[in-house]
Design a protein that fits this description.
Blueprint lengths: L2 H6 L6 H27 L9 H29 L1 H21 L6 H25 L1 H6 L1 H26 L5 H8 L1 H11 L14 H7 L3 H32 L3 H25 L5 H21 L3 H16 L1 H12 L5 H29 L6 H24 L2
Helix pairs in contact: 2-5, 2-7, 2-11, 3-4, 3-5, 3-16, 4-5, 4-8, 4-9, 5-16, 7-12, 7-15, 11-12, 11-14, 11-15, 11-16, 11-17, 12-14, 13-14, 13-17
């Protein structure tokens, strides 16, 4: 028997390769967070506002992520997991380079096409990463999920800091070309790594996973992630525009405030992971919800940079502990791992995170930009209710 078939039946990657795969979620966050910052660089905060175009950009990203599902499966079957990782990174590099060439005043539809391709690259990358971390998740479900979430937040922060630092020093095309180097670096890293798909015998079939996820608790988990990512990305996608138009901050100051939001969100997740074993989850949840609601109210009413920064801190800190709580619960409830299904759940959450700011773009075009604050306010209450329902369902079923 040849070495190639035997390699295909080995576990997906060594521990060091699992670590590199987890670091790939930094690129995933980077690719999706850059839109919220690039909108400022393209001038969408100025008059006349074109909020419908902004909604189209977010929707195009979401469509690309969904469309990538079938393509990822086909490429992985025919070319392998390592190829899929490199191809996804190279496609992202190409999409960013294309977006550098089609900025305003060209028609917004050229940029919609670019974000569609960028969404496809992000979807391919996410599917590949969930296969590449199979070994780590099998050994430590909650820890692996939390590490992925922290890397993802770090990518969001990196994208914002890059645009913020360069917005006055370089042209927008130059910024995008520079940002295209990030997926290029990851393509080089993955080209030197060796990943194979986890053997089917060591994981449940997709049919078995789907049957288990038909339970009310699993549906509640999916809805919770959908709404929580929608909350995070409503702020992540629109905060700079809101602060420029409603508070009067400069583009650079607005981007710094967005970076502060991502910093509190990512740093808060690190803190949450450390205190989860020591603090009752009900207290963490209550504190998180109150902090997020307080942050929304501050941003809604502030008229200065200090209030904007304070609101961003409370929102980021409030949202921070939700994902670790969910990751720990999923790790206990579903200790086995099917990468195809888990990547589907994560993609559903990301689609929720992009559908929310897309919807806000269409609503803001008719009702004004201040309505943007209403969605995170409602979404935060919805997430708190869903977590309470999950705990209640767990008590009733004993799972």
């Amino acid at each position: 028997m040849s070495d190639a078939p035997r390699a295909d039946r080995e576990a997906a990657g060594t521990p060091s390769e699992t670590g590199r795969a987890l670091a790939g979620f930094l690129l995933s966050g980077f690719l999706q967070a850059l839109l919220g910052s690039v909108l400022i660089a393209w001038g969408y905060h100025r008059d006349p506002p074109d909020f419908t175009a902004v909604g189209n950009y977010f929707l195009s990203l979401a469509v690309g992520i969904v469309a990538a599902s079938a393509l990822a499966k086909s490429l992985m079957r025919s070319r392998g997991l390592s190829f899929l990782l490199v191809f996804a990174c190279a496609l992202a590099c190409l999409a960013l380079s294309y977006l550098a060439l089609v900025g305003p005043p060209l028609s917004a539809w050229w940029r919609v096409a670019g974000f569609l391709v960028l969404g496809v690259s992000a979807g391919l990358l996410n599917r590949a990463l969930f296969h590449a971390i199979s070994r780590g998740y099998t050994a430590d479900p909650a820890g692996t999920a939390n590490q992925g979430g922290i890397w993802y937040g770090a990518g969001c922060l990196l994208a914002t800091l890059m645009v913020s630092a360069a917005i006055y020093a370089f042209s927008t095309p130059a910024i995008l070309i520079f940002m295209a180097l990030v997926p290029g670096v990851f393509a080089a890293i993955y080209a030197r790594s060796r990943y194979t798909v986890l053997p089917e015998a060591t994981q449940p079939t997709l049919r078995q996973a789907v049957e288990d996820f038909r339970s009310p608790g699993a549906i509640l988990f999916a809805l919770l992630l959908f709404f929580q990512f929608g909350n995070e990305w409503s702020i992540g996608g629109w905060l700079p525009i809101l602060l420029f138009r409603l508070v009067g901050l400069s583009p650079e100051a607005a981007l710094r405030t967005l970076a502060l939001y991502w910093l509190c969100l990512t740093g808060g997740r690190l803190v949450a992971v450390m205190i989860l074993p020591r603090v009752r989850h009900a207290k963490i949840l209550m504190g998180s919800v109150l902090a997020a609601l307080f942050g929304c109210l501050i941003l809604f009413s502030t008229d200065n940079s200090f209030g904007a920064a304070t609101g961003a801190v409370f929102l980021g800190a409030g949202y921070a502990s939700i994902y670790p709580l969910v990751a720990e619960a999923i790790g206990r409830r579903f200790p086995y791992y099917h990468p195809g299904f888990f990547s589907g759940i994560f993609s559903l959450a990301l689609v929720g995170g992009l559908i929310a700011p897309a919807t806000l773009g269409y609503v803001a075009a008719g009702l004004g930009v201040k309505v943007v604050f209403a969605i995170p306010l409602i979404g935060t209450c919805t997430v708190a209710l869903l977590i309470l329902l999950i705990w209640l369902e767990s008590k009733v079923t004993g799972r």
